[in-house]
Amino acid sequence: MKKLFAIIVLSCGLFGFVQAQTALPYEKMLSLTQEQLKEGKFKYDKYRNQYVLRKSNGLNATANVLNALNGHAADVRPHPDDYQITIQQSENETVAWVDVLFYKDETYHQLLTWARDNGCDLIETSSGKLTKQQFNYEDYNLELTLYVNGVQTTTSSTAAIAKTKDESYNTYHFTIYTKNPAVSDFLTKQAAKEAKRDAKGKKKQSVEDLM
Q1: How far is CA 160 from CA 155, 156, 157, in A?
Q2: Alpha-carbon distances, residue 111 vs 24, 118, 174, 178, 195 (angstroms)
Q3: What is the reported pTM?
Q4: In sequence order, which ranges of the chain are alpha helices (DSSP H)?
Q5: N or C: which end of the chain has fewer CB within 10 A?
Q6: pLDDT, tens digit, 9 for 90 and up, residues 164-176
Q7: Residues of the chain falling short of pLDDT 50
Q8: Residue 34 neighbours by CB distance under 10 Å
Q9: Burial label, 183 (beta-carbon count in 10 A; 0-12, 13-18, 19+)
């Protein structure tokens, strides 16, 4: 079982398996047992009823320490191989949704190609720094999003020779929504707050409410 899960996690890290496949990427994440999640180093958040796996490349932290010692600005950009997988639970140990957060441009293009080749009813929307692809596959609703994080740094502390450097990077999300509703103490508490606010007539009308 450990060998099987190691293969799954490596696939998530390398993302190479997205190429040349018709099956839903990351579909295996929908059927992992609690035992497999534990073996795969997922951390369970009881309040939110989520399993979360974070992978961070330590080379960035080491490089930033060296930069600080040499008087240079730290690189705030995540490493391209960093990622986070969040599995939101529903009732009876079923899954409501799976979200894969990553930073590698190549993986985004692979997933986008897969969506256009295999997805149904694909809709693309964009607003400012956010671009979103929404589509269906079998019984799932899916989203692929790109968000541009604008970051600028100064290369020197001396005003006379200071130069501004563009350190912008993209954040990507691939999200699989099942038909199961998300269940957690956090969501129950949020719903109670909203109901209480509505009962007091304190709900603020949004532009969507006026449609």
Answers
A1: 11, 9, 9
A2: 10, 10, 8, 18, 39
A3: 0.78
A4: 2-14, 34-39, 58-69, 105-118, 185-199
A5: C
A6: 667 789 999 999 9
A7: 3, 7, 10-14, 17, 19, 62-69, 72
A8: 12
A9: middle
